[in-house]
Amino acid sequence: MKRRNFISKAALTGIGLSQFSNLHAKSLVQEFTPLRPLKQNINHSVCHWCYSDIPLEEFLQTLVRLGITAVDLMGPEQWPLLKKYNIHSAMCNGAEISLTKGWNDPQYHAQLIDNYSKMIPKVAAAGYTNLICFSGNRNGMSDAEGLHNCVKGLQQVLPLAQSNGVVLQMELFNQIDHNDYMCDSTAWGIALCQALGSDHFKLLYDIYHMQIQEGDIIRTIEQSHQYFGHYHTAGVPGRHEIDQTQELYYPAIMRAIVGVGFKGHVAQEFVPKSADPIASLIKAFEICDV
After folding, report:
1. CA dihedral 121, 123, 128, 133 (to 10 degrees)
2. How far apart are CA 212 and CA 237, in angstroms?
3. Which class for 270: exposed (0-12), middle (13-18), buried (19 or more C-beta within 10 A)?
4. I want to staple 164 with a disulfide (CB 3.0 to 4.6 A). Which of 26, 55, 124, 193 is the partner?
5. Are 164 and 156 in contact (CB under 8 A)?
């Protein structure tokens, strides 16, 4: 399942998981060896969409058992359940139109400004900080024009974000999984950050996407970390487990993130192919716990 499909489905069905029975969930959340004590150098989170066969409440109960206190890509419909289990929404969503219809196209500005103007105070009132946004696709537009349009649109909502202590974070994608998406390079994203000149706009640096698109992950983190407000993980190729079956060496990447003094969250966003997805998740937390 791709994240864009899950988010679309969830928007139509609340948490989008009511069709799954508790019995089915318990077959996926097996008995597991507890996560070893964490070093607390990394603030761990996880994207629930990668475990969409497990109803959200069952998944949150599992995170509590693991001692993980954050989850990604949650909107207002899910926040009450998160608060029930004292799980933080490390990256909020729900204001975007879609991954392909974003801030680079002025025809969407009115709707986006309205969406974000309503959502930003909700994020703040709920006690959260980060709210995701997307550039949208090029559709024949030059990168320079798209950047100009993003600046023009985002400037309309950044004062509200600042006054509410909210940070808008634009995610970087690769062109294999998200053909024609504009924010597909670190350089373009940084240029947007610099043009906006606000601490309330950052990049969501997706390690999986940027390994496919441009590589040089550790040096990029070391040189440009001030523009990155959040990180996502996954194995390359395939977006599966981050273990020895794929090409990235995540312990070194995590040490680089710790080394630059990053205090935000690192969220697991791999789609487990193991028959025991929670075991894969536990292993991923341990790999990243440097």
Report:
1. -110
2. 8
3. buried
4. 124
5. no
Q: What confidence score (pLDDT) does residue 230 get? A: 98
Give the per-residue pLDDT at 259: 98
Q: How far apart are CA 56 and CA 64, in angstroms?
A: 12
Mean pLDDT, the chain, whole residue set: 91
pLDDT at 26 over 50: no
For the chain, the straight-line distance linking the first and the last C-alpha, in angstroms and rounded, comes to 30
Share of the chain above pLDDT 90, in %: 87
At residue 31, the pLDDT reads 62
Rounded Cα distance, 192 and 183, in Å? 9
Tell whether the model's pLDDT for residue 163 goes beyond 90: yes
* Ramachandran angles phi, psi of 90, nearest 5°: -75, -25
CA–CA dist 53, 208 (Å, integer):
22
Task: Judge residue 33's burial from the number of C-beta atoms within 10 Å of its C-beta, 0-12 exposed, 13-18 middle, 19 or more buried.
Answer: exposed
pLDDT at position 243 over 80: yes
Distance of CA 223 to the CA centre of its chain: 21
Residue 169 sits at φ, ψ, to 5 deg, of -130, 120
- What's CA 257's distance to the chain center, in Å? 16
Q: Find out whether the peptide bond into 251 is cis, omega within 30 degrees of 0.
A: no
In the predicted model, is pLDDT for residue 263 greater than 90?
yes
Q: Are 289 and 42 in contact (CB under 8 A)?
A: yes
- Domains within the chain, CATH numbers bracketed: 43-288 (3.20.20.150)
